[in-house]
Design a protein that fits this description.
The protein contains 8 helices and no strands. By secondary structure, the protein is mostly helical. α5 crosses α8.
Length: 179
């Protein structure tokens, strides 16, 4: 690779790595796997960099590669997921009100646990639409489907998310919904 191309790739990777890692975490629910998926995504983009940098939206292309890497990882039968209930925080926020911090933590944990119960396509649609704040058209481009499919997956995902949150808050085991 030419030095100028390598410098452009390094700048792109430096700018996008954090957002890709966050998106990967929302897809898979595991920070370590999210780092692996981000690394895999950047390696794939690096290999195709001369062709890739000619695309219209590098961010959408990177999200699409990330999504495909995650879906590939989900299809591997030897990888089994485990439900973690009590994980230590990454760092303590000494200035936060403990009561407010507990409420935020509970809501964040509940949302994350509910997201992990969704089928992969619904989860991907919700993460891209509401966490990455992409439009329907941009989400369709990343997912490689029609805008109608994005709308239906988003609607079904929100409906399933509500059901899962209701079950989790009522103390009932979450029922896995497949569409």
């Amino acid at each position: 690779m030419r030095k100028s191309d390598e410098e452009r790739f390094r700048a792109f990777a430096g700018d996008q790595a954090k957002a890709l890692r966050r998106c990967a975490y929302l897809f898979c629910g595991d920070w370590h796997l999210a780092e692996d998926l981000t690394q895999t995504t950047l390696i794939k983009i690096y290999r195709a960099w001369p062709t890739v940098q000619k695309t219209d939206s590098m961010q959408n292309y990177a999200r699409k590669v990330l999504l495909n890497a995650w879906l590939d990882e989900k299809r591997r039968p030897w990888r089994r997921t485990e439900l973690r209930v009590a994980a230590p925080p990454d760092f303590a926020d000494a200035g936060a009100d403990p009561e407010l911090a507990q409420a935020r933590s509970w809501a964040k944990d509940m949302t994350h646990r509910a997201l992990l119960e969704l089928p992969p396509r619904q989860r991907a649609a919700l993460v891209l639409r509401y966490f990455d704040d992409l439009s329907v058209a941009e989400t369709a481009a990343v997912l490689g489907c029609s805008e109608g499919t994005v709308k239906s997956q988003t609607a079904r995902g929100l409906e399933t998310l509500r059901l899962v949150v209701d079950n989790l808050t009522a103390g009932r085991p979450a029922r896995r919904v497949v569409s």
